[in-house]
Design a protein that fits this description.
The complex is a heterodimer of chains A (509) and B (135). With 509 residues, chain A is mainly alpha-helical. Helix content of chain A is 76%, strand content 0%. Chain A has a domain of 319 residues: Sodium/glucose cotransporter (Up-down Bundle). Chain B has 2 domains: 59 residues, no CATH class; 60 residues. Chain B has 135 residues and is an all-alpha fold.
Chain lengths: 509, 135
């Protein structure tokens, strides 16, 4: 692939990299405190929040593995960005974001710590740290694979170059730099992938040509162009898993329990911007299947025998893109990669600093962490986490399917976190130990079910069912343990449970 | 056992830094599975996964199988209703929220800042997409 790039393509990629570095570093002049570093000084407008949420969520794994899955399984892959996003984003915008916002927290574990107890906070923070550190390493490894293909660069060199570029602007500019470079990266990603989509449709003769070409292939089923598939053992994505697990539990758990996504909303300049930002993300999400998964399906029409399927998009780029546009599409890939790496990096450090360092410092010294100390520590930790992730990244060369690894890691916290969040907000009787027990039992259950899921559940995508069962069991355990332990005092619940927030709004009417 | 594999490999990855530099170098450059694996603890995780699969897999499958059979008999129009219902319920819920809650933090109360309208505009295209392509 590298041989097919012309000088102009390399120039476009280089200009893009330098542009990101410049824009990111520009924001360092606005960072004067830990709040500026982690939450952009709570000054982010809704459009930037929405665009950043989408581009942080869509990484290179989606462009490669997601498109590969669409090549193989068809339109049902779009469920992950359609039904697997919109209902959850509405819930996030109007239910969870206002709560997080009003409590003024930096992290989700901090919110749960206030509602339940310290053990709950540290348990979730540890799992999130694990998830984000591994995700960072996977993203860096994906970057290495991609750069080897494009530029014929040795993987280790590619990892350290990506780490260096992202590290410079994330360390210096913090959340504001991350969000503003994300905006730029989303535009580049959309333009590059839209060009690929248009050329792809031109090649296959539009939608009708795509349907005719793919349907003529002997191994294509009638479900290839349908979003909802029957619940049987011949499908990877049965409708039950898509609607009940993905549409309700997994997506809600992902958006409200994933620090990397929710941190943008916490950095909004007003509560209205936070809610509007989440809704804006819902609007942009509609385009993702068109720009990412449909090209995967077009690749099947044009090149029916690609192995592995994950090579669908790179193969399409090689076949269809002229010089110059090819550089733009590769820049779009880098955009997707770097936007996810910078987001996870910033959030990882926010959790470490906010949920581990700050409480320990305050307990030992008896005073809050000075702003300057928090900022210096945050920057040092950003560099340290990046070093850790870059060192760990080569290990993922041994993994067969990184998409499954990510889904498995996600399922560790989605169900249990959502269960205790919902009970914590809607049920005053949920107690500190109830929430803590629900979370810990949920973690253990997801670990066990992930290990044996294929032996228990009908679908190969057993994480769909693991999430639902861990949610239900965590819900039940929290209720039972709460009823067996003394209620929390009313003053502890003020501003944290639904009724106290709604009453406040009603009083202002 | 794709997910079991993932759990084990994730544990292995996290133990990577504890391995010797020689192992690190080998793992970084080699795809060869015959190389010696890191660590005892990875084997322990694998053994635990095997034990869980052997002892808990069959009884849990017996419990879950009737649910799978029952869901397999549900007609696809029910799937469409559930899907549409999820989108519609989300929008209807938003319209039950108080006006002050919706506009809180907004610089003014112009109609275009009404986030209930935003939510409706966001969801409607999705409902159309699922009506057309759902089944």
């Amino acid at each position: 692939m590298s041989q097919s790039l012309a000088s102009i393509d390399y120039i476009i990629i280089a200009v893009y990299m330098l542009g990101v570095l410049f824009v990111g570093s520009y924001f360092s002049r606005y960072v004067h405190s830990a709040g500026d570093l982690f939450l952009g000084g709570r000054s982010l407008p809704f459009w930037a929040i929405g665009m950043s949420m989408v581009v942080s969520d869509i990484g290179a794994t989606d462009l490669i593995n997601g498109a590969g899955a669409a090549y193989d399984r068809g339109l049902a892959q779009a469920n992950f960005d359609w039904i697997g996003s919109v209902p959850a984003l509405l819930l996030a915008a109007f239910l969870f974001v206002p709560y997080y916002w009003r409590t003024g927290v930096y992290t989700l574990p901090e919110f749960l710590g206030r509602r339940y107890n310290g053990l709950t906070r540290w348990s979730l923070a540890s799992v999130l740290l694990l998830f984000m550190a591994v995700t960072l390493s996977i993203l860096l490894w994906t970057s290495a694979v991609f750069m080897k293909e494009v530029l014929d660069m040795p993987p280790l060199v590619a990892i350290w170059i990506t780490a260096l570029v992202v590290g410079i602007y994330t360390v210096s500019g913090g959340m504001a730099a991350v969000v503003m470079t994300d905006v730029m990266q989303l535009i580049i990603m959309f333009v590059g992938m839209a060009a690929l989509l248009v050329l792809g449709f031109w090649e296959v003769g539009g939608i009708s040509g795509l349907v005719t070409d793919v349907s003529a292939q002997p191994d294509t089923t009638a479900d290839y162009f349908r979003l909802l598939h029957p619940h049987n053992e011949h499908t990877e994505y049965p409708w039950t898993g898509m609607v009940f697990s993905l549409g309700i539990v997994m997506s809600t758990g992902y958006y409200v329990g994933n620090q990397a996504v929710m941190q943008r909303a916490l950095g909004a300049r007003t509560e209205w911007d936070a809610k509007a930002g989440v809704l804006t993300a819902g609007l942009f999400k509609m385009a993702i299947p068109l720009l990412v998964f449909v090209p995967g399906m077009i690749a099947r029409a044009i090149v029916p025998d690609i192995e592995p399927h994950d090579a669908a998009i790179p193969a399409l780029i090689n076949l269809l893109m002229p010089t110059g546009l090819k550089g733009l599409v590769f820049a779009a890939f880098f955009a997707a990669l770097m936007s996810s790496v910078d987001s996870y990096l910033n959030s990882c450090v926010t959790i470490f600093t906010g949920d581990f360092f700050r409480p320990i410092y305050e307990k030992v010294t008896g005073r809050p962490v000075p702003d300057r100390t928090g900022m210096i520590l945050g920057r040092s930790m950003t560099a340290a986490v990046l070093l850790f992730a870059a060192t760990l990244a080569p290990v993922f060369s041994r993994f067969e399917t990184l998409y499954d690894v990510l889904q498995t890691l996600l399922s560790l916290f989605q169900g249990p976190t959502l269960a205790i969040l919902l009970l914590g907000i809607f049920w005053r009787r949920a107690t500190a130990w109830g929430g803590c027990a629900g979370l810990l039992v949920g973690f253990c259950l997801t670990f066990g079910l992930n290990a044996i899921g294929d032996a228990v559940f009908m679908s190969d995508s057993s994480y769909l069912y693991v999430a639902v069962w861990s949610f239900l069991v965590s819900l039940a355990v929290t209720v039972v343990v709460s009823l067996m332990t003394p209620s929390d005092p009313p003053e502890k619940l003020t501003g944290l449970v639904y009724r106290s927030v709604i009453t406040k709004d009603a009083a202002e009417d | 056992m794709a997910n079991g594999y993932c759990v084990v490999r994730t544990a292995e990855a996290l133990l990577f830094l504890a391995a010797t530099p020689e192992t690190v170098a080998r793992q970084a450059v080699s795809q060869d599975d015959s190389q010696p694996r890191t660590p005892l603890i990875v084997e322990a995780v694998e053994a635990l996964s095997r034990w869980l699969a052997e002892h808990l897999g069959p009884p849990l499958h017996t419990l879950h199988h009737p649910i799978d059979v029952w869901l397999g008999q549900v007609p696809m129009w029910v799937a469409m209703v559930c899907c549409m219902g999820l989108f519609a319920a989300a929008v209807l819920w938003v319209w039950t929220l108080k006006r002050s809650f919706i506009f809180r933090g907004a610089p003014d109360q112009a109609w275009w800042r009404d986030l209930r309208i935003w939510a409706t505009v966001v969801v409607l295209p999705y409902i159309l997409i699922y009506l057309l392509l759902g089944r």
